[in-house]
Design goal:
- The protein is of the alpha+beta class and about 150 residues long.
- The protein has one domain.
- The strands form 3 sheets. A 5-stranded antiparallel sheet has the order 3-8-4-7-9. The protein has a two-stranded antiparallel sheet with strand order 1-2.
- β1 and β2 form a beta hairpin.
- It is globular, with a radius of gyration of 14 Å.
Length: about 150
């Protein structure tokens, strides 16, 4: 499922907290604020320095509790590091999330393809189509219309 249809962008729901998230399978885009830069080390790769700033992480939730359970976990800072994005959510803050019930994370990455890729392979080690599921959101750069319901 794409978040952009033939008639133009379909607006995506944006949530600032985990209270009203749907407990269904789907995809999401986390808005991460990194107040400080950090070094990101992915297994088998050289470290990459991420400067402070805003980042968008596209993920999926197909397990029990769906989007609500997965995003609420991402919003907690005190958790074991299990996924690539945990390296960011334990150091920065999740400012909100766009959700797409029954959506596809790779479709979200494609919809945001104008944004820079700061860490190749981040969150996409099991994906053959995307360079990364983490994108940088530089100050002053507008997001596609489907994401304008956000911050």
């Amino acid at each position: 499922m794409s978040c952009i249809d033939e008639d133009g962008p379909a607006p995506l729901a944006f949530h600032r907290d985990g209270l009203s998230l749907p407990a269904v399978a789907g995809a999401y885009v986390l808005l991460l604020d990194m107040a400080r830069g950090l070094s990101v080390v992915l297994p088998g790769r050289a470290p990459v320095r991420l400067p402070s700033g805003r980042y968008l992480y596209c993920g999926s939730a197909r397990g029990p509790g769906g989007i609500a359970a997965r995003v609420r976990r991402h919003m907690r800072r005190d958790k074991p590091v299990r996924w690539h994005v945990d390296r960011l959510t334990t150091q920065g803050s999740v400012a909100g999330v766009w959700v797409v019930p029954d959506g596809d994370e790779c479709a979200l990455v494609r919809a945001l393809s104008g944004l820079p890729v700061p860490v190749p392979g981040f969150g996409s080690s099991d994906c053959r189509d995307c360079d990364s599921h983490l994108l940088a959101w530089p100050a002053g750069q507008a997001l596609p219309a489907a994401f304008r319901a956000g911050p």
